[in-house]
Automatic annotation (TrEMBL), chain B:
Key words, A-Z: Cell membrane, Electron transport, FAD, Flavoprotein, Membrane, Oxidoreductase, Transport
Catalyzed reactions: a quinone + succinate = fumarate + a quinol
Gene transcribed to yield this protein: sdhA
Name of the featured protein: succinate dehydrogenase
Bilayer topology: Peripheral membrane protein
Class of enzymatic activity (EC top level): oxidoreductase
UniProt cofactor(s): FAD
GO molecular function terms attached to this record: electron transfer activity; flavin adenine dinucleotide binding; succinate dehydrogenase (quinone) activity
E.C. number(s) listed in UniProt: 1.3.5.1
Length: 250, 644
């Protein structure tokens, strides 16, 4: 059982300035997940009639991408996992743990540790799809895909849209997220028809949302809980430049 | 009240095609004059919203998550069934239909299940066209695996993340329609009530979870794609936010709730580690292909294991009880979910559980590693083993995993007819939110199939039939019924905030969960259920007297959000217990201890219980009224399931 000090970012709403508040929690078991440790804090706060700490979370099995805590200077904490899969055995009795929201212009804080990540949805809406309607598509096996390509596309497609890449980047760049989707569809035969317009439109939306540029530091990939590779960004740059040179956007 | 399932006439295999021809159509130029509300953006909701928008309807899509892509369909691991017969191993639409009806222990509608099997093949085509990266063979064609004890390989998969990839496919189609202006998205918005005008569903009341604003939205039809209610047990494999509120409030507005006691307990989950536990994590049941389930032969040895006085590796072969292999020699560790779960409970009830809480059994890969090498096992289950180690801190390559059953899926839901319409005209329920296709037990890899079948290939046909018959005029959101419903919600919120009790919402949720798990879980009996009924009634009274809901109505307030959800779970819990008490038989996931075969298997009573139990809400504090829909089996012969 551990006793910990938490320095938690509290901010009433988007307009509030916000600041750190210290809390003590005790009796924390090493089997708890990080979010369960925060549940303990919130139950204590609620019992005292104080506003619980708001944070995004849902599936708690590392796949929905909702959880998004910046812990001791790292998105999702010291391990390359989502926050919900981080367990208290990664900490020691007496530790002081600093918990902040994602900090980026593109992700405004809504309350406490919750941010608005709808910018990512708008980037997908700009072109992160294959334009096929329901019905009237060919038999699945009429579109063969070499296994090695399918596997590579799958690796890119496992992005969970949590935004850790943005939070990790000193420029708050969203290029790892955007490039993962562009790569997945650029690799697959289904994505070829709209390949150029997709790259142009998604990059344009990414810029419009206020995300920064990439300076090839690689923090995004190093901190990504799903291990999305930096080579996706290289592929996106190739896709983007060749699209601009021979644009379909006429 | 008589329920009309509207199953089309004619031979089973021709029903859906004939029906598609017979339904009324909405002229393409008129589709834009209709508005459709879709609540929930998981597989069913996202696929329905996208498909309807493509047809030209104006769609409003709502979800409580911050993005439609986070709906809990994302967490499905194993795969999706389809009767493609790509493997040339004897699969067919009829076989998938037959397996599903049998697997559901003959408590599903034949016609619905046949249609599900029929459109399953289209789903795979659709997903591949969207760029879903399914697993492939070296020749570039799609790979399949056998799943959940099926005797054919009909499961398509994307590593252990099939739900994620399918949902991202549907989300991409939805996003495209948002860009086209045909879908308006309302994330972080929770449905608070259904609004009916002259008996028809005409809209919903919502709460904006950021600002707290109560809003009215009108439409010509409302589709609830809001998933299951497993969180009534507090601990389940569902996401923390998964809730029954939308479906429950529709139920209180007249929609019948069918077979609420049919819940699926999944055998391979990571056991509870303590009172702090917030949710349970599923380990894909594909693990049972190679893992052997066992507990120590005697209570004494189990006691030593629990106290860590003996090394697991030192337990002799003759002291290990591979209870599934012993009791079910032909299916062994691959028996269906309900059978595997129940037997794990039995051995733990005997005192042979293996973790500190006494509620865990071993899932052991020692023999598989010896046979096939550690690398072979890693290539099959690497990500699952990593996940296990991440959560428990134990290395499953060295020590056996510990698993225990957990609530995973709910077969019950809103009653719908063949068109997926509830008994409230204009109100539809799709995916896990309805009751229709899985009977009393769902087969592995069939949930994803049903969600997408409903959304992509059923509702686009059946909704038009309803809309074509109604006026294009919109009831506007300033109609009196909307004002009335909105006021009721505002009053309810005030009521929550005015209680100012002493106990937190989670306190009540946990207590409810314990009652449900103890008395309405893996095994039930009349005595326990009757006791549970009383306990829930007391809990409900205490909740409304002593709950502490914090904050104000007009802010981001997760305390208030939870209060709504838990209040509804308590009421649902009462109905589940009623339903379980009413059904004096055992079938699938509903195991009444009084009704079992001499071998301890579920004993159905087809003469008296081959019906859907649909419950009608009759008012606050009153008993619900049972409405029966008789199930007719014209194609499948009812047999006792046997996995010996």
């Amino acid at each position: 059982m551990m006793n910990l000090t938490l320095k938690v970012w509290r901010q009433k709403n988007h307009k509030d300035k916000g600041g750190f508040v210290d809390y003590k929690v005790s009796g924390i078991s090493t089997d708890m997940s990080f979010l369960e440790m925060l549940d303990v804090l919130n139950e204590e706060l609620s019992a005292k009639g104080e506003d619980p700490v708001h944070f995004d979370h849902d599936c708690r099995e590392g796949i929905c991408g909702a959880c998004s805590l910046y812990i001791n200077g790292h998105p999702h904490g010291p391990q390359q996992t989502t926050t919900c899969q981080l367990h208290m055995r990664s900490f020691a009795d007496g530790d002081v743990i600093t918990i902040e929201p994602w900090r980026a212009k593109g992700f405004p804080v809504l309350k406490d540790l919750m941010t608005d990540r709808s910018a990512f949805d708008r980037i997908i809406q700009a072109g992160g799809y294959v334009s096929v309607n329901t019905g009237g598509v060919p038999d699945a096996n009429e579109i063969p895909v070499p296994k090695i390509i399918a596997d590579e596309a799958f690796d890119s497609a496992t992005c969970i849209s949590c935004g850790a890449c943005v939070a990790a980047c000193k420029n708050a760049s969203a290029m790892l997220f955007v490039s993962a989707k562009i790569s997945q569809l650029a690799l697959l035969p289904q994505g070829q028809v709209e390949r150029k317009s997709r790259a142009e439109n998604m990059v344009a939306q990414m810029d419009a949302e206020g995300f920064g540029a990439c300076t090839n530091i690689g923090a995004c990939s190093a901190e990504c809980p799903k291990g999305i590779k930096l080579s996706n960004i290289a592929r996106m740059n190739r896709e983007y430049f060749s699209a601009v040179l021979s644009s379909d956007n006429v | 009240m008589i329920l009309d399932s509207k199953i089309p006439e004619g031979p089973l295999a021709e029903k859906w095609n004939k029906h598609k021809f017979n339904v009324k159509l909405v002229n393409p130029a008129n589709k834009r004059k209709y508005e459709v509300i879709v609540v929930g953006t998981g597989l069913a909701g996202a696929s329905a919203a996208a498909s309807l928008a493509e047809l030209g309807y104006n769609v409003k899509a709502f979800c409580f998550q911050d993005s439609p892509r986070r709906a809990h369909s994302i967490a499905a691991q194993g795969g999706i069934n389809a009767a493609k017969n790509y493997q040339n191993d004897g699969d067919s639409v009829y076989r998938l239909f037959y397996d599903t009806v049998k697997g559901g222990d003959y408590r599903a509608r034949e016609a619905n299940v046949y249609r599900l099997a029929e459109v399953s093949v289209n789903i795979i085509d659709q997903c591949v066209a969207q760029g879903v990266p399914f697993a492939r063979e070296y020749g570039g064609l799609l790979a399949n695996r056998s799943f959940g004890g099926a005797q054919v390989s009909r499961t398509f998969y994307a590593r252990g993340q099939t739900g994620q990839q399918l949902l991202l496919g549907a989300y991409s189609a939805l996003s495209r329609q948002v860009a086209n202006g045909k879908v308006k998205l309302y994330p972080r918005t929770e449905m608070m009530d259904l609004v009916t005008v002259e008996g028809k569903a005409r809209g919903i009341i919502t709460r904006n979870l950021i600002t707290g604003t109560i809003e009215s939205h009108s439409a010509h039809a409302v589709l609830l794609c809001t998933g299951g209610y497993g969180n009534v047990f507090f601990l389940s494999t569902n996401a923390m936010g998964s809730n029954v509120t939308a479906a429950w409030r529709a139920h209180k507005k007249g929609a019948l709730f069918a077979n609420p006691c049919f819940t699926q307990i999944h055998p391979t989950c990571i056991p509870v580690s303590g009172d702090h536990q917030s949710k349970l994590t599923l380990m894909s049941e594909s693990l049972r292909n190679d893992g052997r389930v066992w507990v120590p032969r005697t209570v004494e040895i189990a006691e030593k294991v629990r106290k860590k006085q003996i090394k697991i590796a030192d337990i002799k072969e003759e002291d290990r009880d591979y209870f599934l292999e012993r009791k079910y020699p032909s299916f062994g560790n691959l028996v269906p979910r309900d059978v595997a779960s129940r037997n794990a409970k039995y051995v733990c009830d005997e005192g042979r559980g293996v973790n500190e809480t006494g509620e865990a059994v071993f899932l052991d890969f020692r023999d598989a590693i010896k046979r096939d090498s550690e690398d072979a096992i890693r290539s099959r289950y690497g990500n699952l083993f990593d996940m296990y180690q991440q959560i428990t801190g134990d290395n499953p390559y060295k020590e056996p995993m510990m698993i225990y059953p957990a609530v995973h899926y709910t077969m019950g839901g809103l009653w719908v007819d063949y068109n997926l319409m509830t008994n409230v005209p204009g109100l539809y329920a799709l995916g896990e939110a309805n009751f229709s296709d899985h009977g009393a037990n769902r087969l592995g890899a069939s949930a994803l199939m049903q969600g997408l079948a409903d959304g992509y290939f059923v509702i686009p046909y059946t909704l038009g039939d309803y809309l074509a018959g109604m006026s294009k005029e919109t009831v506007t959101a300033d109609h009196d019924e909307f004002k009335k419903a909105a006021k009721e919600i505002t009053d309810k919120i005030q009521k929550f905030l005015s209680i100012k009790g002493t106990k937190t919402i989670d306190h009540f949720h946990k207590r409810l969960g314990k009652i449900m798990w103890e008395y309405c879980g893996m095994a039930r009996n009349a005595e326990g259920l009757t006791k549970a009924k009383g306990l829930i009634k007391e809990l409900k009274a205490e909740f409304w007297r002593d709950v502490k809901v914090l904050g104000t109505p007009d802010e981001l307030n997760m305390s208030l959000e939870k209060a709504h959800r838990v209040a509804d779970f308590i009421e649902l819990g009462e109905l589940m217990v009623d339903d379980a008490l009413n059904r004096d038989e055992s079938c699938g996931g509903h195991f009444r201890e009084e009704y079992q075969t001499p071998e301890g298997e579920a004993l159905r009573d087809d003469d008296n219980f081959a019906y859907v139990a649909a419950w009608k809400y009759t008012g606050e504090g009153l008993e619900s009224e049972l409405v029966k829909e008789e199930l007719k089996f014209e194609n499948v012969k009812l047999t006792q399931r046997s996995y010996k």
